[in-house]
Structures are given as C-alpha cells and as structure tokens.
Amino acid sequence: MGVILMYRLKKSLTQQGTAGVMALVALAFLSVMGTALMSLTTTELEIACEFRDGIMAQYLAEAAVVHALVKLKSDPIFVNNTAIQSATSKNTLIPYSGTFPGTYKVIVTGSGVDRTITAISSVSQYPPVKRVA
C-alpha cells in the first residue's frame, strides 16, 4: 500500500503545470489560425471588389458602344466626323453627366459601313477595359 501511494504522489508531481502549458500552446495555435483566416478573408474581399469593378467597367464599355451606335443612326454631323482615322473631339463621345459609376470614352473611326467603335471605360481605381466593336 505504501508503494502505490508513493507512485501516485510521484506521478502527480511530474504532471504539475502540464495543463497550463497545453492551454498556452492551444491559445497560440488558435491565435495564429485566426490571424491567417482574417488575412485570407481580407484578400478575398479585395479580389471580389476588383472583379465587381471589372464587370461594371465591361458593362459601361458596352453601354458606350450602344451610345455610339445610337449617335451614328441619329446624328448626321457625327457620322461625317467619323471619317477621321484618329481620335479627335469631333468623333469622341464622353458621358454627359457624372451619374455613371465610372467614366467612358468612345472613339468612332471609318466611313460607310466599315466603322470601328472603340470604347474605353474605367470604374473606381482599377485599370480601364477596352472594348472594340
């Protein structure tokens, strides 16, 4: 009976403080994991915002092409000015007001049925999207 009691006493003396060390290791591991997940989430959010702005710029460029097509069908002065092969203020369209989520610029060149419509749009701070129709 004395031997069993001594063994239990020796075992409990060597395991003292183990729970505290294990708790600190677990806390450090969870802190590192939390920081990594927060960084990953921030990066994913930035990627999603850039993707959204890219889609917005693409739709804005497509709307600019439609604007140019309407202008070609309805404005004979604009049609005459598109015979110029370089971009000038006479064959370039810029939106009328600042109500758009970004900006665009449309350049129409060519004559007759052979015309090139180039629309360049930009949303926020991301690079412009170029659309040629």
Order of helices and strands: HHHEEEE
In percent, how much strand structure appears in the residues? 15-25%
Report how far apart the termini are: 96 Å
Largest sheet: 4 strands, antiparallel
Helix content: 55-70%
Can you summarize this structure?
The protein has helices at residues 2-14, 18-74, 76-81; strands at 92-93, 102-111, 114-123, 129-132. With 133 residues, it is an alpha+beta fold.
Q: Could you describe the 3D structure shown?
A:
The protein is an alpha+beta fold and 133 residues long. The protein is built from 3 helices and 4 strands, in the order H-H-H-E-E-E-E. It has helices at 2-14, 18-74, 76-81; strands at 92-93, 102-111, 114-123, 129-132. A 4-stranded antiparallel beta sheet has the order 1-2-3-4. The longest helix has 57 residues, at 18-74. 14% of the residues are buried.
